[in-house]
Amino acid sequence: MTTDTQTPDGPPDAEETPGDPVTPLTEPADGIPAVTTTAEGLAAAVAAIRAGTGPVAADAERASGYRYGQDTYLVQLRRRGSGTWLVDPRELPDLSALSEAAGDAEWVLHAASQDLPGFAEHGLLPTTIFDTELASRLLGLERVGLGAVVAEILGLGLAKEHSAVDWSTRPLPESWLRYAALDVEVLVDLRDELAARLDAAGKTEWAAQEFEHVRTMPPPAPRVDPWRRTSGMHGLRDRRQLAVVRSLWEARDLNARRRDIAPGRILPDRAIVAAARAMPRSVPALTALREFSGRATKRRAPQWQVAIDEALALPDAELPSTRGPRTDAPPPPRAWPDRNPEAAARLEVARATVNAVAEEVTMPVENVVQPSLLRAVCWSPPERLDADHLDEAFAAGGARPWQRALVAEPLARAFAGLAGA
């Protein structure tokens, strides 16, 4: 399992493993399966999954920080009576037969929102899921990475040293395949224990609503001005400097897409920001910057200078705004006391109220209600701040029924107290 965050300067850090003594899980029970790459092998996998019973444990590996996108490079499936199957979706892009073979069986995933988009691209469409990471959050576990949860719940040590490797590598080393098989080895056992704990905590229905929400989430809309997420550019205030960031970001993105390499491996964000600050007028001036002195970066310096020159030549009317694109989102909360003092007061009591609710139900605040949604409701509240109208406002923002039931009444009381102060 890999994270889905493509970092600007290299692969993500490996998951922190727990320090408590556990029983190491070192070998898959059925041995290390060969990678399925042929139609005949896929047919055998389909037959095995169809003949199995119970939930389907599933996982996917990507090449975050190495390749341009979030393509899936390995799919792992395990079902009782079916064994573990490692399937190469690059060789077998249509895996819909596996989904059909599973029928209405529940799929068990850890951090399902990371894997489901890639599964869908290959025809893997679960009809119901159980997300062990999300279940762990709802139960208030302090660490929710798979290795940490397996250690705490099952007392087993699951090594995670290959979580951030380049899974586009072919052939995959045996140690990586062992890791991939072990990632689904105990997922169903973990699911059963977490389900029992959810039931004991009265959170089974909450979890079901969350799982279905994750399963049916539409893909995110493309970001507006994605170059504005360049790390470290927050200190740039000059529009010409922002134009340099945009031009270099776009040139890097085009290069990365063409070569199928993570953008940060071609040109780190820190180099883009350094060039924007310096605004060099020549290749020698560019390569004089420490961030452009490396051999690979220096070799491509002429193309980066072209992008810089294009930004420097733009007329003022075509320079990007320092404010960014207009959106319906509220401004940063730090600006609220000046721009909308009443909203700032609402947000203060709302945060305190939701924090108290989160503590009472023992789970992270962000799982009780999405912080951006809480800010939106406080900034643009419903006409009346009673529980019913707040419930409608949160529902319109995508909050699930269990979340609304937890926060609508307490927030209504808090806002009423604010009005009476």
UniProtKB/TrEMBL annotation:
Q: Show where the HRDC domain sits.
A: 238-318
Entry's Gene Ontology molecular function annotations: 3'-5' exonuclease activity; nucleic acid binding; nucleotide binding
Q: Which GO terms describe its biological process?
A: nucleobase-containing compound metabolic process
Q: Which domain of life is it from?
A: Bacteria
Which residue stretches belong to region Disordered? 1-32, 315-339
PANTHER family documented for this protein: RIBONUCLEASE D (PTHR47649)
Q: What is this protein called?
A: Ribonuclease D
Which species is listed as the source? Paraoerskovia marina
